[in-house]
Design brief:
Blueprint lengths: L3 E3 L9 H4 L11 E3 L17 H12 L4 H4 L15 E6 L2 E5 L10 H18 L3 E6 L3 H10 L5 E8 L5 H8 L6 E6 L3 H14 L5 E3 L6 H18 L3 E6 L4 H11 L4 E8 L4 H8 L1 E2 L20 H9 L2 H14 L2 E2 L2 H10 E5 L2 H15 L5 H11 L7 E5 L7 H7 L15 E3 L3 H11 L2
Parallel strand pairs: 4-14, 5-6, 5-8, 6-7, 7-15, 9-10, 9-14, 10-13
Antiparallel strand pairs: 1-2, 3-4, 11-12
Helix pairs in contact: 2-8, 4-5, 4-8, 5-6, 8-9, 11-12, 14-15, 14-16
Length: 445
């Protein structure tokens, strides 16, 4: 049986049934599986099943205990058509995997649709009502709302940084006006929102079960890991992946697939002006700076929380990971040892793009390929062009350009802006957690 332990050493493990509704571990670590108990994937065959059934098989291969929670459950209810990723070949050995054909036009739908369905099913079976708390830099919030807005057993609170997501992203969240949905605009950065969400998950809230749909929850990794397994089965040879990287959940999922033996060679991480991951990959030192607004807001992050799982894997030690994050908390800086840095740099490569470069990339790709990329995906495609040509490279397109029309308009003349003309509902607050708690309690008492 698979057991899930905290990345920081807390000794009481969880089973899958408890993992579903988990947040942070008691020591503020992230739950991770005992990798020695992972089952094999020899029965997977993309030719014999729908993508939904394929993902269910991946979940069961990772943990057979998930089978009873998936039986008869629709895990992609929000997709109008098949959830199968769209793989496009652009040039010899260069591909783009489109992951933006779900209900919110973002790759986040691929992990949050299953997690929302499984969590709702689990709560209903327990006769409980859960409170989901989600921090978002743009895409996670709307994907989480769409995953649970019709839930029988879940209320959801989404925290987004005020004025620091695109208008389309904001309206995807704030125009969903339902009794179980509360949107809060925080006068701060995404990192502030994430800190508040973690505090709420850690402290709880007046007899409510507070659960996470952020990448804090391991099931998010399982959902994203699934499309890398699908990619490996589709390409059938070793390949690289190039990913626009913000909170590192997508990149970690690719690393986890590689760790389990799938033929991913190198992982390329593209960053915007908030280049904390670029600097970490090149130096082995994590040193957050002030978060700056950019035209690629989903990457406006300085403390990538999903990175912690990679740090544990690199150290092969929860104790060293604990020391790493204590150092980060105390000094705002933490470094890998020499051996861990060597492992990191043997797999990961990165580059960073400023706003001007991103706008030019969108324009150039449109002129060259008659294809419109969103500002995040454009960076991944650019970085894929610089990748190791010994292997095919797949750039991950994480969002539709419709979500970032303000930026795309600057790159492509006469681009028709996508709009959402619906009434919005959200509250605005400071980063004071007590004020936020009061708002939540007043709505979901």
């Amino acid at each position: 049986m698979v057991k899930y332990f905290s990345s920081r050493g807390h000794q009481v493990p969880l089973e899958f049934k408890d993992l579903i509704l988990s947040g942070l571990a008691p020591d503020n670590g992230l739950y991770m599986p005992d990798s020695t108990t992972v089952n094999n994937f020899s029965t997977l065959n993309i030719q014999e099943s729908s993508y939904e059934d394929f993902v269910k098989k991946v979940f069961v291969s990772l943990d057979i205990a998930s089978e009873s929670f998936l039986d008869g459950l629709s895990i992609y209810p929000g997709f109008e058509n098949s959830a199968t990723p769209n793989l496009i070949q652009f040039e010899h050995s260069k591909f783009v995997m489109e992951l933006f054909h779900g209900p919110t036009k973002s790759f986040k739908d691929y992990a949050l649709q299953p997690l929302g369905s499984i969590a709702d099913n689990r709560l209903e079976s327990r006769g409980e009502r859960g409170l989901v708390v989600v921090a978002t830099s743009g895409d996670t919030g709307s994907a989480a709302i769409q995953a649970v807005k019709d839930s029988k057993s879940i209320d959801i609170v989404v925290l987004h940084p005020f004025g620091k997501v695109s208008e389309y992203q904001r309206k995807q969240m704030t125009t969903v006006i339902q009794r179980n949905v509360l949107n809060i605009a925080v006068e701060g950065s995404y990192d502030d929102c994430q800190r508040i969400a973690k505090e709420l998950l850690s402290e709880g809230l007046e007899n409510r079960r507070v659960i996470s749909l952020n990448s804090i929850n391991w099931l998010r990794v399982m959902g994203q890991f699934s499309y890398y397994v699908w990619l490996a089965e589709t390409i059938s040879e070793p390949f690289n992946v190039s990913i626009p990287s913000g909170n590192f959940g997508n990149a970690y999922s690719a690393w986890f697939a590689r760790k389990l033996g799938f033929p991913i060679e190198n992982i390329y991480c593209a960053s915007n002006i908030n280049d904390v991951l670029h600097r970490f990959i090149n130096s082995g030192t994590l040193s957050p700076k002030e978060t700056l607004p950019s035209v690629a807001p989903s990457m406006d992050i300085q403390i990538p929380s999903s990175l912690e799982r990679l740090v544990v894997d690199l150290f092969s030690s929860k104790e060293k990971n604990n020391e790493f994050y204590k150092s980060l908390s105390k000094w705002n800086e933490a470094s890998l040892d020499v051996q861990s840095q060597k492992i990191l740099q043997s797999v990961f490569f990165s580059s960073t793009y400023d706003d001007h470069e991103i706008i030019k990339l969108i324009s150039d790709y449109y002129k060259k390929n008659n294809y419109i990329f969103d500002p995040h995906s454009a960076t991944a495609v650019s970085l894929s062009e610089d990748s190791n040509n010994e292997f095919p490279t797949v750039a991950v397109a994480t969002a539709s350009p419709k979500k970032f029309s303000e930026t795309v308009k600057k790159a492509i003349e006469n681009y028709e802006e996508a709009t959402i003309d619906k009434v919005e509902k959200y509250t605005k607050t400071t980063t004071d957690i007590n004020s936020i708690k009061d708002q939540i309690i007043s709505i979901f008492n």
